Amino acid sequence: MAFDELIHQPSRLRIMAFLNRLGPEAEVEFTRLSRHLELTEGNLSRHLAKLEAAGYVEVRKGFSGRRPRTWVRLTGKGRDAFRAHLRALEAIVKGEGNDDTRRSAGGRQGLRPRPRPG
């Protein structure tokens, strides 16, 4: 199972989900992403730096006219990691996975039937 602690952090999960919905080669301008996710630019920058270091996103800087711009896109590695993370979450919800995962996710190990009254 590929539960990814880096992606699981709530703001990074929202970033990855937003970028995943854009499509394989699409990119979004940094300020639009910041506004959409309601994250400060500093907060978004820190999360993107962590995702970029893992190879999950690509950050591209350039100009639109004379104004500096930053664009963000999900890499193939990032898309694969995001999908694997979603599958891991689904497995936890369904009670699937290895014995350790089932125990920590409330699986059947160590449970017994509830006594009936009377």
Write up what this structure looks like:
With 118 residues, this protein is of the alpha+beta class. It has a domain at 1-55 and 62-74: Orthogonal Bundle (Arc Repressor Mutant, subunit A). The chain contains six helices and three strands.
Q: Please give the number of β-strands.
A: 3
Give the strand line-up of the largest sheet.
Answer: 1-3-2
Find the CATH topology of the domain at 1-55 and 62-74. Arc Repressor Mutant, subunit A
Shape: elongated
Instruction: State the major sheet.
Output: 3 strands, antiparallel
Helical element count? Answer: 6
Mean pLDDT: 88
Query: According to CATH, what is the class of the domain at 1-55 and 62-74?
Result: Mainly Alpha
Instruction: Please state roughly what percent of the residues sit in beta strands, choosing from under 5%, 5-15%, 15-25%, 25-35%, 35-45% or over 45%.
Output: 15-25%
How does the helix and strand content classify structurally? alpha+beta
Taken in chain order, the helices and strands follow as HHEHHEEHH
| Named CATH architecture of the domain at 1-55 and 62-74 | Orthogonal Bundle
Radius of gyration: 19 Å
What is the helix content?
Answer: 40-55%
Low-confidence stretches: 101-106
Q: How many angstroms does the end-to-end distance come to?
A: 43 Å
CATH superfamily of the domain at 1-55 and 62-74: Winged helix-like DNA-binding domain superfamily/Winged helix DNA-binding domain
